Amino acid sequence: MTEAELTAKGMKWVADDKLLIDFFSTDKTNLWDVIKTIIENLGRGEIYHETGIDSSNNVVCNIAIVERIGTDNGVRLRLEKNMRSISIERNVSDMITRLWAFGSDDLTVSSVNGGKAYIDSPNIEKYGVQEGYKDYSDYTSAEKLLRN
Questions:
Q1: Which of 10, 60, 81, 82 is 20–30 Å from 32 (CA)?
Q2: Exposed e or buried b for every residue in 42-59, given b needs 16+ CB within 10 A?
Q3: Distance between CA 84 and CA 137 in Å, rounded?
Q4: Whose CA is closest to 98, among 129, 134, 135, 125?
Q5: CA 69: distance to chain centroid?
Q6: Contacts of 97 (CB under 8 A, 6+ apart)
Q7: What's the pLDDT at 3?
Q8: What per-residue confidence (pLDDT) applies to 18?
Q9: CA 33/CA 127 separation, integer angstroms
Q10: Residue 88's pLDDT is what?
Q11: Which segments of the chain does DSSP mark as H helices, in order?
């Protein structure tokens, strides 16, 4: 995304003159976890993303790490003011329905899981495939890796 596109949405890039760019391992992880790690290392920022279709009918996903999503319009919500009702929503964005578990020396569960190197949750049909990765480097047995 360009600076102008973010400014039009009332947002700005996370920037810091003292920011040092460095490399870090992204082995056995996914894009969202990498972005979250960058934000944790920066100490601030939010993930803004939008998905659309371009003129060639390709799906385009724009991702930006911004100071804050949206703008402050001065409205404050309190339980007794400006609210008609309140409800609880469950956030399942961090839920994993397909786990890629890795043991010692990149051991996987494929030998004890029908050739599949991943473990699917019973909720995969309900929530779709949400991949996650976990390092169990102290596990040396595929059976133990599958159980845990």
A1: 10
A2: eeebeebeeeeeeeeeee
A3: 51
A4: 129
A5: 16
A6: 120, 121, 123, 124, 127, 128, 129, 130, 131
A7: 76
A8: 58
A9: 19
A10: 79
A11: 3-8, 31-42, 124-127, 142-147
**Which pLDDT band holds residue 126 (cuts at 50, 70, 90)?**
confident
Give the three-class secondary structure for 65.
Answer: strand
The whole-angstrom separation of Cα 81 and Cα 42 is 36
Query: Using an 8 Å Cβ cutoff, are 95 and 124 in contact?
Result: no
Q: Per-residue pLDDT tens for 66-120?
A: 888 877 788 876 766 666 777 778 777 778 899 999 999 999 999 999 999 999 9
Residue 90 tokens read as 């469950």
| Cα-Cα end-to-end distance for the chain | 41
Write the burial class of residue 32 (CB in 10 Å: 0-12 exposed, 13-18 middle, 19+ buried): middle
Q: Domain segments of the chain: what residues?
A: 3-66, 98-147
